[in-house]
Every structure is written in structure tokens, then in C-alpha cells.
Structures
1.
Amino acid sequence: MQYSDIVSELASLSKNYGEKLKNELERDGLKILYCRLLSALAEEDGGTQLSLVERTGIKAPTVSIMLRQMEKLGLVLRKVDDYDLRKTHVNLTEKGREADKAAKDRIVQMQKNTFGNISEEDLKIFCSVLYTISDNLKS
């Protein structure tokens, strides 16, 4: 097998996994980026919009637009800080907590479907090779 074949397979795998995950989440009416914000809020509910930007790596204008959309869907509530009007705190609603749980359940199920028929030994070897490739790219 040529190196270019391996690179092509890795790219295809990543693309296919991302598309499959996107489609699975959209069945529940969720966007992938929503899930990143829901997960971050589930870990630290009530944080500021800026802290969400810092924790997720999603750009501030994108977070602002997404939160506006998520608020319209009833997933989050935004509230301007009483003492510092520059800060906006974001909280999950009950519907947002349910959506976060549904997304995490869907992801776990997809991981089981993807890797369930691969032996533990093969998965360890696969991960070891991926880590080596990742390290090679960093150097």
C-alpha cells in the first residue's frame, strides 16, 4: 500500500465519520456545533459567552449566532450580568439538558457501531499507530 493510499483512506474515514455523525445528530434536530456548546454548558452551566468561546475554540461571532438560534429553540437562556453589562451568562434549559444527553447517547451508540466488531487488541494497535502518525506530524 502506498502512503498516498493511507492518507486518502484517513481523509475519507474522517469525512465519512463526520458526515455520519452530522446526519445522526440532525435526526434529533441538532447541529454538531450546537452539541459542542451544549456539552461545554453541561460541564459549566452559567458561564459567560466569552468562556464558551475560550473552551470550545469556536469564534465569538459564530457562538453569538449559535446561541441566538439555540435560545429560539429553547435550548439555552442568555442573561446579561447585573453588575457588568458587557458579560452575558448562558444557562441550559431542561430541553437543552435533554438535548445534550440525547446527543451524547447518539455519539456513544455510533462509536459502538463503528468499533464494536473490532477486537480490543486491534484497537490498541490502531490507536498506537495513530498516535505515532500524530507525533510525526508535530515534529
Note: The chain has one domain: 3-138.
2.
Amino acid sequence: MEVSIQGEVSPLTGLFAKIAADHPNPLQSPQRMEKQAIQQKIEAYVSAYNAFDVAGMLATLHPSVQFKNIANGQVTLTTQGIEAFEAQARQATQFFRQRTQTVTDLRITDGQAEAAIDYHGVLAVDLPTGLKAGDTLALQGKSIFRFQDNLICSLEDIS
């Protein structure tokens, strides 16, 4: 393919036109890849969470990860760094016999993602709130994921 500029053919312009013809919108590919990578990282995190696989969860996290849990508008837990997150995640596995996060909607913009989450868990222990071992906990909320170096660097769970 050749492109004419004021009656002259520019070899460089022709090269760019050929590249454009072979790759209809080259700027969309990296964006799709980034969104796909974000979705895959979230899927890996949620899958590990559901399987009580703390090591699998940690594999998706940045070393300086920030975690915040917000329930009914109140911050109930924060951690800073992967070691603090690991300690909290290992402790949390003791509270449930079964737990499942299901992503019902995922919106990815500007390198971050907001996931609508359905959460179901069966308690393994009695809680001070009055819930007993064997009770089912069902919540709806959202998780906000931010990324750095292709890893989750910030996670906010909101219910």
C-alpha cells in the first residue's frame, strides 16, 4: 500500500500505512492486554481466596500491598505490606469452614478494577457478634483493586 502526499510517495508514510493496514488499531491491543492481565490477576486472587490458598493469594500481591476492609461505612481492618496481609489472611482462614467470593461484575478503568462481589461463608467458630459456628454469612459488596508492577498493590473490600 502506498500513500501519496502532494503527488509524491513517501516511503516512510507508506510503511506506516502498511502497518496500520496490518494492525487496524494498534493502540487497542496493549489496552486489551492490560485489562486481560488485570482480570487474570483478580481471578487468580479470588480463586486462591476461595481455596484457602494463602500462598496463592500472596503470589498476586505487591510486596507493599495495602489492604482495607470497610463494613457499613466503617474501616474495620487495615494492613500495610505483604507480611501483615499474610498474617491477617492466615488468621481469617481459621474463621470459616467454607468461603466463596463470586465476582458478579468487573469494571476496569485506568489500571484499577472494581469488582461487585457476592460473598458466602460458613463459620468455623463462634463470633462475638452472636453468630455461631455453622452459621452462614452472606454479603454483597465490592472490592477495589489497584495495581503496580503487574501485582495488586491495594485492595479495599467494602460491604
Note: Confidence is low (pLDDT under 50) at residues 1-33.
3.
Amino acid sequence: MWLLQFFSSTQGCPGPSIFTILPTWYEFLPKTSIKGACSPALTSISDIWLIVAAIIEILLRVATLAAVVFVIIGGVSYTTSQGSPEQTAKARSTIINALVGLLISVSASLLVGFMATSL
């Protein structure tokens, strides 16, 4: 449950997002309410870095999704290897590499989110 909240979190006004997993490009920008509608506010030139951080966050979440897909592919390959040592080793390698990529992308995503909210 907390993982879903992490991946679908938007600060302030919720905006449209793809699959409710990817954040919007204005996730870290301050929001203003104009006639009841939320909109991002560019208050200074340094807000460009917040947009860059949000784009990096989107790319890291795509990498996380790709890593999960590769874990599934590796699991299916492992299951269908029928005891063949080469296929089993290849599938195990795919799973391990995908898990390392998953760890790196989730850690980087947390770091970018922390840095962007502290700016």
C-alpha cells in the first residue's frame, strides 16, 4: 500500500498522470488556486530546477517499471528453463540484474524526491 502511495504521490493539487504511477512535470512546483482550479506557479528562475527534478523523477519511475518487468521476464524464463543449466543461469542473471536496477532506481527516486522537496 505504501509503495502505491509513493509512486502516485503528488504534492498539493493532484494532476493527471499516466497510469497514476508517473508524477506530473510540475510535481515539485508551488501550486496556486485560481477560481478553484489548481495550477503550477513559476515564482523564480530557480523553479526550472524543480521541473528538471520532476522530469528526472518520471524517468526514474519508468526505469523502476522496466526493472519490475525484467524481474517478471526473468522469473518466467527461470520457470520455463526446464532444468537447463544455461537457461537457468541466464534467467538468474536477469533476475539479479533487474533487482539491482530496481534498488538503484528506487533509491535514486527517493533521493531526487527528497532533494526537490527541500529546495
Note: The beta strands are 31-34, 37-40.
4.
Amino acid sequence: MQKVLKELKDKILRALIIRPLVNMKFLNYMYPHVHGPKERLIIKDPGNVHLQNTLFNTRCGTITLGRGVMFSHNCMVLTGKHDYVSKDIKKIRDIVEEGERSIEIGDGTWVCTGAIICGKVKVGKHCVIAAGAVVTKDVPDGCMAAGVPAKVIKEI
């Protein structure tokens, strides 16, 4: 009986609270978001990637995802940049769209929870980007990268 009541409570919670908040964009725990031109997000095999609620910023370059790429929750893949040297607040807030800061993520790579990938970088095939890592440099094929900034910690 307790199990049935818990399942009913969970269904009601999802139906009446969580789903409406997701639909109104107040809560995002299920869907990816593309900030910038959507055509710059290139997915080689759309039926074979897991995006979760990843944020893709395509303002300053393309993002290419190989076959079988997996993202855990709350990841970010960022090509955008700002003029942080300027003293003018408007220039700092505006995104600098020129420049090539594209990101490529190879086949079979797993990007773990909370990882951030900043362009311009290439993450190789069959890599693991550890939870909370901030990737700012290329990661070769078959490696695990972790840390802030991310460094290769072992070959897999």
C-alpha cells in the first residue's frame, strides 16, 4: 500500500508541478537548449545521442557531436565570448560573434554531470570528461580528462 501511495504521489507531483514548470521554461531538467543559431549545432546521428538538459552556445562557432555522444545533466558546451577587457558595460554584455571557436566532440564520448567545454577545442573519440571538469584544451582519443582546467588523467 505504501509503495502504491508513493508512486501516486510521484505521478501527481510530476503532472501538476514539475511538467508545467518545465513547459513554462522555469525548470529545465529534461531538455537541451541552444543559445544562438540552431543550425550551428551539428549532430551526426540524432537518434543515437543523449543530450539531457545540456546548454549549447553556438554564437561564435559550430558544435559538432559524433555518434553515440552522451551528456549527463547540467553540462555546457560554449563557443561564445565577451569583451571582458572593455570598460564599457554594454560591450562587456554583448557577445563578440566574430572569431572561430568551434567545438568538436568525437564518437562515443561521455560528458559527465556539470562539465563545461569551452571553444575552440576538439574532444576525441571514446573520451570521458569527468563531472565538473572545465575543458579549455584538446583532449586526445580514448582519454579521461578531469579538473579545472581539465587535464588528461589517464588513457582508457
Note: The first strand starts at residue 33 and ends at 35.
